[in-house]
Every structure is written in structure tokens, then in C-alpha cells.
Amino acid sequence: MNAQTQPEFAIETRVVVKTYPSDFGDIQAVDGVSLQVRPGEFVALVGPSGSGKTTMLSILAALLKPTAGEIYLDGQNMHELSENDLVTLRREKIGFTFQANNLVPYLTAVENVELMLRLNDKLDKAGKLRARELLARLGLGERLNNLTGQLSGGQQQRVAIARALIHNPSLVLADEPTASLDTERAYQVVETFAGLIHEQQRAGIMVTHDLRMCEFVDRVLQMRDGKLVKEYTDKASIMKMVRGRAND
Ligand SMILES: Nc1ncnc2c1ncn2[C@@H]1O[C@H](COP(=O)(O)OP(=O)(O)O)[C@@H](O)[C@H]1O
Ligand SMILES: [Mg+2]
């Protein structure tokens, strides 16, 4: 630990708007979203299909520019960065796993994870060891040297999670990380994911349509029509919502 002051939030957005033009008029996919996530906090973003979750996650990943609003990552206003600096920031400070996991099928599990370190010029002995340990923790200790193209969907999803965490990003984003997992494996993966986020003090945001997965998060943000409409901030209200007894 050093004495440098760290901003309170790893990620903060202020009134973010994203509008897509269409033949039938503009679509307000994200409509004034302000959120903050602290280091070590794991947040779920839920809401019906079309409510703007993926758009919001893409904006947070600096893959999509908002139409309006501001985003701060570790206190840095993303809007003030050049395109090059934004690429560097994304590579160094953000980890993500999207529904299509984008693994390189002809590389092994461990090579896919190491690739993130290589891109950041950080593939040393310690990094290689961490890649193996992380995969083992995600239940893939016996699949390290298998080509990811030959792994099951669920195994690939876990390699993608390891890859999202290996370079010690400030912000970890996951879009439906359990989409291809059976229930038992989904619980295991999200529980491990939550454990790693807490332990390593990352800010984690997970989009999920499976409300049961909210059992492992610290806070739930609910979106509807591009807006944040509800927030569950404590374990008791999250569990009540998970069990379907939220009276809204
Ligand atoms: N590239 C795009 N062009 C036009 N409209 C889009 C685009 N991406 C998403 N949308 C629209 O924006 C809204 C939010 O979509 P999305 O962020 O994918 O929601 P979710 O992930 O919650 O299902 C939807 O109405 C969707 O049709
Ligand atoms: Mg989506």
C-alpha cells in the first residue's frame, strides 16, 4: 500500500446519455445514468431486454462514446483523453468479458490469459504463475494447456473471466458471464468472481438477467428504458429481490 490518495470511486458516471439515430426517430438507449462504484465493490446491473445494459457497459468499457455526460476512471475524465490514451487506458485499467467471449481459439487457456499480460508488456515469471493460479481458482487447473476452441462454453467463459482480471484492472466489466453455464457452475463462477473482486479490490460491474446471481453482489442497479430506476444497497433487500418478493 502507498500513501497516495486514491479517488473514492474507481468508476463514476455523470448523467450519461447515448442516443442512436433511427428511421423512426432517435432511440435513447441510455438516458441520464449517474453511478459510482468503489474499489472492491461488486455491482449487478439488471433490467429487461432493451433497457440499455449492454450500451451502458460498452460506454464504461470506453468502447462506445456517450452522446453526453462524463465518465471518470480512477478520477481521470475519459472525455479529456486522446484516442491513443483511451486505448492505453482501456488496455491497462479495464478488464471485460462480453457475451461473445472473443477468446483466440487456437491458443490454449493459459495462453489466452497470458495474452493480456503480453499486450501490457507485463508477461514475466510472476505473471505466468498468476495466470495459472487464477485459472486453477476458476476450476480450470486441468485445462491450462487445452486449446480454448476445444473447451465447453462454460469453460471458455471462465477463461474469459481470468483474462478480464489478470492485468489487475481497476474496473472489471462482465456482460452475462453465466449465460452458457448450468446453475451450479454459474453459482460457483460468480461466487469466485465476487471473491476475486473483493480480494483484489477491483470495481466490478456485472450485467445479468439471472437474478439469482445477485446473491453474490454488494449492490444491484436496475435499469428500465435507459434509466436507473431502482437500487438495492444492502444484503437483506438484495436477497428479498432475489427471492422474488420485492414489492415494486
Ligand atoms: N447499435 C445500435 N443501433 C441502434 N440501436 C441500438 C444499438 N444498440 C442498441 N440499440 C437499442 O438501444 C436500446 C438498448 O439496447 P441494449 O443496450 O442492447 O439493451 P440491453 O442490453 O439491456 O438488452 C434498445 O432499444 C436497442 O434496440
Ligand atoms: Mg444486452
From TrEMBL:
GO MF terms held by the record: ATP binding; ATP hydrolysis activity; transmembrane transporter activity
CDD domains (UniProt xref): ABC_MJ0796_LolCDE_FtsE (cd03255)
PROSITE patterns: ABC_TRANSPORTER_1, ABC_TRANSPORTER_2
Record InterPro entries: AAA+_ATPase (IPR003593), ABC_transporter-like_ATP-bd (IPR003439), ABC_transporter-like_CS (IPR017871), ABC_transpr_LolD-like (IPR015854), MacB-like_ATP-bd (IPR017911), P-loop_NTPase (IPR027417)
Keyword field: ATP-binding, Nucleotide-binding, Transport
Organism domain of life: Bacteria
Cellular compartments per GO CC: membrane protein complex; plasma membrane
Ranges of residues in domain ABC transporter: 11-244
Pfam families: ABC_tran
Family annotation (PANTHER family): IMPORT ATP-BINDING PROTEIN
Protein name, per record: Putative ABC transport system ATP-binding protein
The species this protein was found in: Pelolinea submarina
